[in-house]
Amino acid sequence: MFAGGDVNLTEKIMNGCNRLSSMVGNVYPQEIKQIFNDLLMNKPVDLWKIKQLINKVTSGQAIINIKNHYNSLGIKVGACRSPIN
Predict the structure, then answer these.
(1) Which residue of 17, 21, 27, 83 could cross-link 12, Cys pair, CB 3.0 to 4.6 Å?
(2) How many domains does the chain have?
(3) Looking at the domain assignment, is residue 84 inside a domain?
(4) What superkingdom heads the lineage (predicted)?
């Protein structure tokens, strides 16, 4: 069962989730993979670190933050368009 997102990840795993669909993992793939695997194996994790990574990606608009991250790495993903009114 997939945990739909990074928020409340510890609780989702305790409720039986063993896979992750992660927006934060698009920016911090190695960190999220390690944290997720540690949680699955009941190893201690730094919950403050998880919260900081989530906040870095999701503060404001997550998609804009992710695209800006990839563009800064030289991976041209373009900009987000404005909403259609």
Answers:
(1) 17
(2) 1
(3) no
(4) Bacteria
Split at pLDDT 50, 70, 90, the class of 82 is confident
In a domain, 30, yes or no: yes
| 45-57 burial code (b ≥16 CB/10 A, e <16) | beeeebeebbeeb
pTM for the model: 0.80
Query: Does any domain span residue 56?
Result: yes
User: Domain range holding 42?
Assistant: 2-72
Report d(CA 56, CA 36) in Å as an integer: 18
The answer as to whether 82 is a domain residue is: no
Over range 22-45, report the average pLDDT: 94
Q: Which helix (H) or strand (E) holds 29?
A: helix 29-40
Amino acid at site 32? I
At CB < 8 A and 24+ separation, what contacts does 36-43 make? 36/9, 39/9, 39/10, 39/13, 40/13
